[in-house]
Amino acid sequence: MEKRKLRIGVLAVQGAFIEHEQVLKNLGADVFEIRQLRDLDRPMDGLVLPGGESTVQGKLLRDLGLFEPLQKKIREGLPVLATCAGLILLAEKLSNDSATYFSTLPVTVERNAYGRQLGSFFVQNDLKHVGNVPMTFIRAPIIDHVSDGVDVLARVNSPVNGDKIVAVQYKKQLALAFHPELDLDSKVHQYFLQMI
Ligand code: GLN
What we know:
The radius of gyration is 15 Å and the shape is globular. Helix content is 22%, strand content 35%. By secondary structure, the protein is an alpha/beta fold. The protein has a seven-stranded mixed beta sheet with strand order 2-1-3-4-12-11-10. A three-stranded mixed beta sheet has the order 5-6-9. Bound molecules: glutamine (GLN). Glutamine binds next to helix 4. The site of glutamine has 11 residues, from helix 4.
């Protein structure tokens, strides 16, 4: 019997969502965009929170009435792949910002930790459970602190701020400071689909 396609909702209010959609479609997933409340009526096996600007995304989520229903789904165990701004939306605490958003991931995150404008760089690094992957950082956050039960998947050593955590998993929340959707390597997305 053929396996049912996984249905992945990609938050598409701002940021780099199209790239995620393409990678997931290439891997055979059924992808749809989340832009308004009625998009949440569709059955969803997993959610992608893309990179972009967390403050803008947070505001749009609230204005569109998406914030509470999505937070509830994540709390109830909906698998999430969050990249960059998405990681900021999930974090329980931000060390350099008084705002918080979904607060479902028990970590502390520092926004723009590599500097605002010159903070973009690329490394090839190991990601636990996945293997060696390209990591593109764009005005990226880092993870300052993780609570018990959070699996640290990758650390990157940079001249700007030393050896820092850049990827974690907590239950079904996979959160990365970098942008796997921008490189020609779909191992991270493959891992996410397997995790579901
Ligand atoms: N600097 C952005 C923020 O703080 C995140 C950057 C990104 O998603 N590439 O929201």
